[in-house]
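Re: beginner question about structure tokens

> Can someone show what the tokenized structure looks like for a real chain? I only ever see the sequence side.

Sure, here's an example I had lying around. Input first:
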Amino acid sequence: MKLDHIDRKIIAALQLDGRMTTQQLGDRIGLSASPCARRIRLLEQAGVIKGYAAIIDEALFGLPVSAFASIKLSRQHEDDLDRFAKAVSRWPEVVDCYLMTGQRDYLLRIVVSDLAEYERFLKEKLTRLDGVASIETSFALTQVKRTTFLPET
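And the corresponding structure tokens:
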């Protein structure tokens, strides 16, 4: 799907406030509600808009610890990568997972309530997964920036 300037305006506005009505959105970008709704539906059907969510303050929710775990697998065969990805996808503590280039295979961001909870996650889940050769963890001290707003292209 090729995005035009109106699609980009819609996306920018929804990134700022995903709860606005199509009428409010139309007023903001200069379109009536009906064409706005149609364009949103097309963006959703094309997968450009994947869904809508509330942005939660992790610390206030009781998950103030963010751990970044770099994972090296013993082998990088497709089956090994798929098995790891499927396992990680089932773990609610893992909020981000990236297949990486370089010396490590995966980078995970794990949110937990405290260090004891991370230790439990590590011992009961991550280290029990076949094929994990090494794990290096770094803990975030302060979140400097987090955004769901994408830059314009």
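Each token stands for a local structural state, so reading them left to right follows the chain. The first helix runs from residue 5 to 16.
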